[in-house]
Design a protein that fits this description.
The chain is built from 25 helices and 34 strands. By secondary structure, the protein is an alpha+beta fold. Strand 6 and strand 7 (165-176) form a beta hairpin.
Length: 878
């Protein structure tokens, strides 16, 4: 009998085992891919390690082990419907970058399963690629596995490759769970039954595919393994599925108790319980890595998951908001392996609460509309919902297409994907442009991919703006070169540099690089893979060549202005968290020599009082002139100081901690020496940029003085226009405004009088219809207000009446109908009159029973419209 072990214990056992065997234990990388445009979300253990496999970055050690959190949504429609599928999972892995290979990787896996976990060796079944004789012999000769338990499979099952690039055979390890879990024809090795479970996959990356299925041996052979944590837990705990292993089972049972249902008592409710269990876990982890719900990219994936969960919560009878409450349970159960969940709990709960509240405002109306659409389909015998209708549900009621399709499938119906996509063309075009033509790494193939991975640059610019360095690489815009000559654009990489490269939101430095034979003007500085710093610009004189020693001089004015904005951003974040609450987290930032931009999580517009309070706190911190203290320490020690960290940022073992006043943050950027150097601070705009994310733009120092100077200049110009002194501008504008109101009033009266005079004794021509006066005529009027005033004047003279007036105003046909209360009681309806006659003049209109108007393009038909109006009125009045 295998000893029972929980998910958290198995995770620790795996990582400790490989750490004892010379592997560097790395924490899980963020779910947000770093420098990899081929992925929206990390979906495998090796995905964050691609740069090490390709040689584009040097790994911290040649042996690495991780437990990587992953999200896969390709089969999201099956999540919940089966007990096998889920969007969130953890992948255990051990990796070798040119260190060990098959003879070590296979024993590592076998010994962990049999000796550490205690699985019965006779119930383990390896598989190998049909042509991989080396692996087969290791299993038989070294691991002493009976050949009858080793299966040879073809390329589809046991060979890993992804187009051109590194590839190789793999060996998988299956576990026989026994007849208890199945004894049918599908319950065989490689079958679809539940009895034999694949628990470990070892990929031997030993070939390179040239894209035409021509394979050559790699000089550096790598090992990439993966074992699903939930799957090995399912085996060890002898559970039916990933949903009933200890941590997931605790979430599922918590949800079942909240809903008042019992798992395995009703098929449909079981589906909803599994969906909620999986989706609340996925959304909690995604938000903890800084992903916010939105309508594109990974934010859209999160929104789909949350809204699908909310819908199934409704199906289980939950009437109140519940996502945040369930997330607390997820955090409690998983914080052992992922302490960031507890650190970000306030923000996670707030994001879930806000998204659920937003969807709850429309879900009932959307479901009612969809039910009406389904009823129409069933009535007509149609089986497919129009794409435009599916898009309406998405656009108006926030229903992701897959949620609409899931509801339709329950009724045996489908949706027109093609029609929906046509309505979403603009968004799809954006998505396509965002998913770039990629190399093996998934990023744009550029000249920088050709640079030797062993080259690196040391940054020396924290305490100096000038330094000497050796040119170690030169590139034009499309190739590596030995020299750049006058007029050529390119990139210079040196072994050390005082130039700060764009990262962490801070704009890179500009400046000049001077060599013995020429000068290079640096327009931007960029961070390249493998710790290289690229100086991008143009040769302004002579030539810069490889291996040359050059002088590097940073533009001090730009660096200082940028530093002021960067330091002010730290004070701003502290002030925002103080004024708005601890849910505020940085979700983006940019600072250059002109201004600062700060994006942060908050769920409503800031009030004027809140903005003023934040500005005051920042300016008080500036006035205190505190020293800006920078210290280097371990990441763990930094966290103990309470230093704020950024979402998705990769930190090494040693980090820089920047403190100023009450603000303490992990930061690799450049700063002022004292807060007083910032000078002053002013927020110039605050606005929403996406769901739950606000953006502040602000100015400091000389840029703020220039801003105020521009305002003063405009103020002086405005005062000169109205012939007033700037300090008397308000009084003068108030006076002019009152005069303008008076003149407008007199003008309206004159226009009304002129219009009245143009009709003379028109009231005398009114027709009596069963005691109600009827008058339909064409008038001369300067504008709609004059025409309305004329109608009021005629009504006063006629008593109970219906009046319809038409006029040519600026080449447009204008119609107005009015009916007194007495006329309305007798059946007259101004609104219906206008609706019927408006098309005659090529327009449309409407209004109330007592007053309505319309506009049209055909002034020649005004008389026809008035004649028709008289006919309609005579039929209305009883």
């Amino acid at each position: 009998m295998v000893q029972y072990r929980g998910v958290n214990e198995l995770r620790r056992m795996f990582l400790d085992y490989f750490e004892r065997n010379g592997h560097l234990k790395l924490k899980s990388f963020s779910l947000v891919p770093h420098n990899d445009d081929s992925l929206l979300l990390i979906n495998s253990g090796m995905a964050p390690l691609k740069p090490y496999f390709t040689g584009q970055e040097i790994p911290p050690r040649r042996r690495v082990t991780t437990c990587q959190k992953c999200i896969r949504t390709g089969d999201i429609d099956n999540v919940g419907k089966t007990a096998r599928h889920g969007t969130f999972f953890e992948m255990l892995g051990n990796f070798s970058f040119g260190d060990y290979f098959k003879h070590e990787a296979i024993p590592f896996a076998w010994n962990f399963l049999t000796q550490e976990v205690g699985l019965d060796p006779n119930r383990l079944y390896p598989s190998v690629y049909v042509d991989d004789d080396e692996s087969y012999k290791i299993w038989t000769d070294e691991m002493h596995v009976d050949p009858s338990r080793i299966y040879k499979f073809g390329k589809e099952d046991n060979f890993w490759e992804h187009g051109a690039g590194p590839c190789g055979p793999c060996s998988e390890i299956y576990y026989d769970r026994g007849e208890k879990w199945g004894n049918g024809p599908e319950d065989v090795m490689g079958g679809e039954g539940d009895r034999f479970v694949e628990i470990w996959n070892i990929v031997f990356t030993q070939f390179n595919n040239d894209g035409h299925n021509n394979y050559t041996e790699l000089i550096q052979k790598n090992i990439d393994t993966g074992m699903g944590l939930e799957r090995i837990a399912m085996v060890v705990q002898d559970e039916e599925s990933i949903y009933t292993v200890d941590t997931n089972k605790a979430i599922l049972e918590y949800i079942a108790e909240l809903c008042g249902v019992v798992y395995h008592s009703d098929h449909d409710k079981d589906v909803s319980l599994r969906i909620l269990t999986d989706h609340i876990k996925s959304s909690t982890f995604m938000i903890s890595d800084g992903i916010m719900p939105s309508n594109e990219g990974r934010g859209y994936v999160l929104r789909r998951i949350i809204r699908r969960a909310v819908r199934h919560g409704r199906k289980l009878g939950i009437k109140h908001d519940f996502m945040a409450e369930m997330a607390k349970r997820v955090i409690e159960l998983n914080k052992d392996g992922y302490p960031e969940l507890e650190e970000k709990q306030t923000m996670i709960l707030q994001v879930l609460k806000n998204e659920e509240e937003q969807f709850n405002k429309t879900i009932d109306a959307g479901l009612n509309i969809l039910n009406d659409m389904i009823a129409e389909l069933e009535k007509s015998g149609e089986k497919t919902l129009k794409g435009a209708d599916a898009f309406k549900l998405y656009d108006t009621y926030g229903f992701p297409l897959d949620l609409t399709k899931e509801i339709l499938e329950d009724k045996g119906l489908s949706a027109d994907d093609e029609g929906f996509n046509a309505c979403m063309k603009e968004q799809k075009d954006k998505a396509r442009s965002a998913r770039k033509t990629s190399n093996y790494m998934g990023a744009d193939a550029t000249v920088y991919d050709l640079i030797d991975a062993s080259l690196t640059s040391a940054f020396t610019g924290y305490d100096k703006l000038e330094d000497k360095g050796k040119v170690i690489c030169l590139t034009t815009e499309d190739e590596i070169t030995q020299a750049l000559t006058e007029g050529q654009k390119g990139t210079i990489i040196t072994d050390k540099t005082p130039f700060y490269a764009t990262k962490g939101g801070q704009q890179g430095d500009a400046g000049v690089i001077t060599g013995e034979d020429g000068s290079f003007e640096v327009h931007d500085t960029i961070a390249l893979k493998g710790g290289k710093i690229g100086h991008v610009g143009v040769v302004t004189k002579g030539m810069i060549s490889i291996d040359q020693t050059v002088e590097l001089k940073v533009d001090a004015a730009q660096r200082n202005a940028t530093a002021k904005n960067h330091s002010a951003t730290h004070l701003l974040q502290k002030a925002l968290r103080t004024v708005l609450g601890d849910h505020v987290e940085q979700s983006g930032a940019f600072y250059d020599k002109h201004r600062l931009r700060f994006d942060f999580t908050h769920f409503k517009a800031m009030t004027a009082a809140e903005i003023a309070a934040v500005e005051l706190m920042v300016n008080e911190a500036i006035a205190s002139n505190d020293e800006v203290i920078t210290r280097e320490m371990s990441l763990e020690d930094a966290k103990k100081t309470g230093a704020m960290a950024l979402f998705g940022e990769k930190y090494g073992d040693t980090v820089r901690v920047v403190s100023m006043g009450d603000s303490t943050e992990l930061c690799g950027g450049t700063h002022v020496k004292r807060t007083g150097d910032i000078g002053s601070f002013k927020i110039v705009s605050e606005a929403g940029i996406s769901a739950g994310v606000r953006r502040i733009e602000a100015l400091t120092s000389d840029n703020l003085l220039n801003y105020y100077q521009e305002i003063e200049d405009r103020l002086n110009k405005a005062a000169a226009v109205i012939k007033a002194q700037p300090n008397d501008l308000v009084n003068k504008l108030t006076q002019l405004n009152e005069e303008l109101k008076s003149l407008k009033s007199e003008n309206e009266k004159l226009k009304a009088k002129l219009a009245g005079n143009s009709l003379g004794n028109a009231a005398d021509n009114a027709e009596d219809v069963n005691g109600i006066k009827l008058l339909c005529l064409k008038a001369d009027a300067a504008d709609v207000n004059a025409l309305r005033s004329l109608s009021d004047s005629l009504s006063d003279k006629l008593g109970d009446c219906v009046i319809v007036l038409g006029a040519d105003i600026d080449g447009k046909a204008t119609l107005i109908a009015s009916a007194t209360d007495g006329a309305v009681k007798r059946g007259a309806m101004a609104g219906s009159i206008i609706k019927e006659i408006a098309p005659i003049v090529g327009g449309k209109g409407g209004g109330r029973p007592t007053m309505a108007q319309a506009g049209g393009t055909d002034t020649a038909k005004i008389e026809d419209a008035l004649t028709k109006a008289a006919e309609i009125i005579k039929t209305q009045i009883k």
